[in-house]
Design a protein that fits this description.
- This protein is of the alpha/beta class and 292 residues long.
- It has one domain: TIM Barrel, CATH 3.20.20.
- Helix content is 39%, strand content 16%.
- It is built from 13 helices and ten strands.
- The longest helix is centred in the C-terminal third of the chain and has 16 residues.
- It is globular.
- The protein starts with a helix and ends with a helix.
Length: 292
């Protein structure tokens, strides 16, 4: 499956209204590796989006996967490794880097579990030798560690030096084995203080419990962002009454395949925020982080 030059550049018509002529970046997508997830994780995704999960087998080639997202209205996709075998699965960083490398529009975020990887910095550098690494994803409540774990500080320092974004899962999760105490956004305050130039994305923006806390951190720290995957766009004004104060620090994510409809989310986000603000959330803020 190929894409034409205009699609590769990220500009195309999106639906009937031509005013939405800008690229879209999805910062939170789980790769099509069904063997890598726990049965519970796949079962939940099936209840939310059975079509998306059933397509995994058909979208095993990177170009086909990206073309599928083009059809949903998304031009660039961040694929997340997820090395959390006790909770959600073992989506290996090496596999995600291999899948994304060489396909313009796919971007790999690798993952490190401090209980499994004794030398995170060394492994990170090895992964960069393997292919392009666009960022890192941590799941403290799935991997059972505090974000300020000193075992990760040398890696944080290197990521800060490279200005690579780091996504941390925050807020509630449906999966057994999750330890919520590790998912509080305020735990990232110490990391943000110790690494003031490290771009930190709060995945799910404190979902279900800590919306105010997440917004506070984004307001206090220059490089802390709200990543709104898993949140119904129409509820954003309720969750974040002062969202307009940090609109340059909000990035879109779908949480595919755990979302009923990406096109519906894009439509709702534009209706709720308006075209100009939605453009910033759907493209400008995330593109700046990834250097696109």
């Amino acid at each position: 499956m190929g894409v034409d030059a205009e699609e590769r550049a990220g500009f195309r018509e999106e639906g009937p209204a031509s005013e939405y002529r800008h690229p879209v970046l999805d910062m939170h997508v789980h790769p099509p590796f069904p063997h890598a997830y726990t049965p519970e994780g796949l079962s939940y995704a099936m209840t939310v989006n059975p079509q998306g999960v059933s397509l995994f087998e058909e979208l095993r080639e990177p170009a086909d996967f990206l073309a599928y997202f083009h059809g949903l209205g998304v031009d660039h996709v961040v694929l997340l490794a997820e090395e959390a075998p006790l909770v959600s699965g073992m989506v290996m960083s090496e596999d995600v880097v291999d899948f994304a490398t060489g396909t313009d529009g796919l971007h790999a975020f690798v993952s490190f579990n401090p209980h499994l990887t004794l030398d995170p910095l060394g492994r990170f550098e090895a992964l960069r030798e393997r292919g392009r690494v666009a960022g890192v994803k941590f799941l403290p409540s799935y991997q059972h560690f505090w974000p300020n774990d000193r075992r990760l500080y040398s890696l944080y320092g290197r990521l800060e030096e490279l200005r690579l974004p780091v996504t941390f899962h925050t807020g509630l999760s449906r999966f057994r084995g999750t330890k919520l105490k590790y998912a509080q956004p305020v735990l990232l305050d110490e990391v943000a203080v110790d690494f003031p130039d490290l771009p930190i994305l709060l995945a799910h923006a404190g979902r279900g419990v800590w919306y105010g806390e997440a917004l506070l951190l984004a307001s206090l720290h220059e490089h802390v962002y709200l990543e709104i995957s898993g949140l119904p766009p129409r509820n954003l004004p309720t969750y974040f009454p002062r969202l307009e104060s940090v609109l340059d620090k909000v990035v879109f994510g779908s949480d595919f395949p755990g979302v009923p409809s990406i096109p519906d989310n894009l439509r709702d986000l534009r209706e709720v925020l308006g075209p100009e603000a939605a453009h910033r959330v759907l493209w400008c803020n995330g593109a700046r982080l990834l250097g696109l």
